[in-house]
Structures are given as structure tokens and as C-alpha cells.
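Final report, closing paragraph on structural work. Over the funding period we assembled a curated collection of sequence-structure pairs, and we close with a single example.
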Amino acid sequence: MRRFQESDGQEWDAVVGRSSWGGIYLLFIPVEGGPVRQMELETEQVREAERKLAGAEDSELVRLLESSRLRDP
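Its predicted structure, as stored:
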């Protein structure tokens, strides 16, 4: 899990998750509450996704957040 901040000051937690059908997602969870966002990752390995998340710059996480969509219910 990584915590990062948008330019407006809102904080988010980014965490790698796996769907029941095997897809790997990056979930964006607002620290102050609100809707969760998600994006599917192009990897088949959770550990690889977690390693990339750990090494990502905050600016990259903001860019990924901007291209994410609301999480499916």
C-alpha cells in the first residue's frame, strides 16, 4: 500500500488487489472517505504489481488515479 497526495491536498491510499476472475487491479481509496476508484493492471503477477507500486513516484500515482474509473459495485 502507498499513500500519496493530489495537488489539491486530497490523500489517497493505493493498493494492489485481485478480482475473483484473476484480474489484477490498482485500487485508489480516498483517506477522508468517498468512492473507491480502480484500474486494471497489465500484469499477471501480484508481486510484480506490488513492486511497481512501491517504486512509483507520487506524480505517477496521480496520473494513474486520473485515468482510473469508479470501482464496480
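The chain has a mean pLDDT of 94. Residues 15 and 45 are 14 Å apart (CA to CA). We thank the funder for supporting this effort.
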